[in-house]
Amino acid sequence: MNRIGRLRDRLGRIAYGGDYNPEQWPEPVWEEDLRLMKEAGVDLVSVGIFSWATVEPEPGTYTFGTLDRVLDLLADGGVAACLATMTASPPPWLTARHPEILPTGADGARMWPGGRQHYCPSSPVYREHAVRLAERIADRYAGHPALALWHVGNEYGNVAPCHCDVSADAFRHWLRERYDSVDALGDAWSTTFWSQRYSSFDEVLPPRSPAPFANPAHAVDYARFSSDELLACYLLEKEVLRRVTPDVPVTTNFPPSLRPADLWTWAPHLDVVAYDAYPDPHDPAADAKVAFSYDVMRSLRGGQPWLLMEQAPSAVNWRARNAPKPAGAMRLWSWQAVAHGADAVMFFQWRQSRGGAEKFHSAMVPHGGPTGRVFEEVRELGRELAAQPALAGARAPRADVAMVLDWPSWWALEQDAHPSADVRFLDAAWAHHGPLYDASVACDVVGPDADLSPYRLVVVPNLYLVAEEAARNLERYVEGGGTLVMSFFSGIVDPHDRVHLGGYPGPFRRMLGLRVEEFWPLPESGRIGLSQGTGTVWSEEVILEGAEAVEHFTTGDLAGRPAVTRHRYGRGTAWYLATRPDPVTMRGLVDRVREGAGVRPVLPGLPGGVQARARVTGDGPCYIVLNHRATPVTVHLPAPMRGLLDGADAADTVHLPPRGVALLRSAD
Ligand code: GLA
After folding, report:
1. What's the pLDDT tens digit per position in 180-232?
2. For the chain, what are the domain ranges?
3. Any residues with Cβ below 6 Å from ligand 1, and which?
4. d(CA 298, CA 444)
5. Ligand 1: which of 310, 311, 362 to mutate, most ligand atoms within 8 Å of CB?
6. CATH T-level topology, domain 3-160+249-391
């Protein structure tokens, strides 16, 4: 059995728990913690994420007493540990002795200790100390009965890329490996422009706040390099853990923003994907947005269940205004993660801190103690999840729709000096994913060079940067009979941010049957008329070269010109959106395209605001139905189903209270 199979066997259910920071509390509190964990059905906690200064109070001196007692207590209490390597936050003695490990911003200003995650990932000094600590921890706890999973670092990339001199050296080394000669670098970075020609790699710096504007190819390579440097830190620690504890799975928790690291390059190095999600209760689209992230997480390792490593039991502390989760929202959003393939529901954090920057961040056990609504909901959810062991390890069926996501394209898209500052990747992704989500259509996420043949529909919200081969991959998919939807400002540049010449969107022109003459971005919050609805963000002058116009612009200088086109190409169809239709119009369009491609919702006829997803257990599909509305709703089912949460008899309708959840299985 592989490492993850063993972990699943050990936990035997959807894991439940959170970050546990007992070093912030006197020991008598720990006893209460264990008692309350039992009461709440907690079976997995992340320990020691920020314990470096506790465990190594002086260089090379290790005081494991606290952690020994905590882990023994957990083992005795039947709670497994996701044990951190503790390298996320260097202790003061390290930065005092080696200030050169502190990260430097793009403006050249050093970040100082006093917060956390203040290290330069390229620093050999940081790496040496981190690996040494990881090794000591692995040696100490190999074979400890509490140890179930390794948690390396914490939220890599949560701090902006470092631009210090050490990073500059490492970047030059990275560039030498990538480009054989400085002339090749010059060609890739278009350095004949603005007198940027380098005569030696030694002259290259990180893109430190240049006089406007930065060379975009340089900036995108720096984003690639920064992702690789963080990955190198992770891999150095992972290597040690593998050597000492070959049977213990290793992971790290990806930060909510998704953006800093190219997760396609990371995912193969994790035994299981882990993610931290903090949807904003003030945002009416919070559930739709986080659903996209969950689809990314499930897709990173080909549909393997992933771990929701952190979420807030209620409010966070780091937004300008921090809304609590209203009654039922924490449970609903937790089940949403499970519906999208999560095998763990965990929180930041177990007990609310008394001091420090996160004292107003909610926790499973709040300042007021285990008496109020938050703890009650925590306890209830723990009980509920424990009663559904069959879900653990159950995969979601492969979706019929795939959405294309590519990190270098994302980074390149968001450089300066583009036609519009309003074209942001996540906005595009959400605008295309939202209508699928609203219709309860499952969606996988893939890279542009993935095998697309299993999918009936491929959606490309924006692929600004694309290599010829990847573009051919999408084209072949359509030729072979696939349906593809692509939005504007795709296929514009090559991997070095150089324009694909010969007319936009270069490598997609043949497939789309059109050419774009000129971009006409809209003014801030501007709208443009369409034959049905309105367009937002963007418009452009499309010249048809085989495609037919399905929608036209109806206002402004582009009135009468194509806004949405369709092109039959090979055995398939390629749609193109030359604007971003408003959400209602977008929903209509996406429904039309996906129905044409034969893509059906997970359950038919669900009312608005109600989502369903499936996971396939040994007994067949289990449907998780989520009412995201604050009002009750009755859902009509295609066939009689039994309720697994409430033990309801088979029926062909199910009543969901406000923010209610049902777990359903076919009656036969
Ligand atoms: C991140 C970190 C945690 C904690 C939470 C608070 O996800 O990983 O340590 O700071 O944010 O929301």
Report:
1. 999 999 999 999 999 999 999 999 999 999 888 999 999 999 999 999 999 99
2. 3-160+249-391, 401-596, 610-666
3. 154-155, 276, 278, 310, 316, 348, 358, 361
4. 8
5. 310
6. TIM Barrel (3.20.20)
